[in-house]
Each structure stands twice: as structure tokens, then as C-alpha cells.
């Protein structure tokens, strides 16, 4: 069984400017933990959280967007980022075969 993890996020570049805000978008970001559906740092952090917990995490480039960066969000290669993360729930996903 895999768990889908809906989270709310506020992502910030190293200068403090926002590049992602699911609260403003009105929709949670949902991913399956351990399946490579999000950046490495978020995948690792969220698995340590409890439902309803909020945290602030600072991610170095290897745990964020790495050497490629994320040009569509104006995140340069090898950039550090931070996230405010709220784990909304654990939702059972489908089995993988």
C-alpha cells in the first residue's frame, strides 16, 4: 500500500521571494512518498511529520532542484530553497504491482 500525502506548501527562494504557495492556489499538492514525485528534501521531511503538523525546512540544492534548477519558477541551478510545509492528511493510495 502506498500513501498519498496532501500537503500545503509555501516555497521561497534564498532571497525570500515566493515561488509556490498552495494556500493562495486553493489546492493542496499531493504526492506519493518515496516515488520521486517531488523533490528529495520534501520527500524526506514529510515522512517524519504527523497529520496536521507544520514545519519550516531549509533545503540545499541537492535536496531541492539540484544542478538543473527550476527555470519556470526562476530558481537558478544549485540554489537553496526553503519551504513551510503542512501535512494535511495521509490518504491510502492504490497498490502497485
Summarize the structure.
The chain has 97 residues and is mainly beta. The chain has two helices and six strands, in the order ββαβαβββ. Helices cover 11% and strands 35% of the residues.
Description:
This protein has 97 residues and is mostly beta strands. 11% of the residues lie in helices and 35% in strands. It is built from 2 helices and 6 strands; from the N terminus they run E-E-H-E-H-E-E-E. Strands 1, 2, 3, 4, 5 and 6 form a 6-stranded antiparallel β-sheet that branches. The longest helix has 7 residues, at 40-46.
H/E order of the elements?
EEHEHEEE
First and last CA, distance: 10 Å
How many DSSP E strands? 6
Chain oligomer state: single chain
Based on secondary structure, the structural category is mainly beta
Number of helices: 2
Largest sheet: 6 strands, antiparallel
Tell me the strand percentage band.
35-45%
Radius of gyration: 13 Å
**What form results from the Cα inertia axes?**
globular
- Portion in helices: 10-25%
Unreliable runs: none
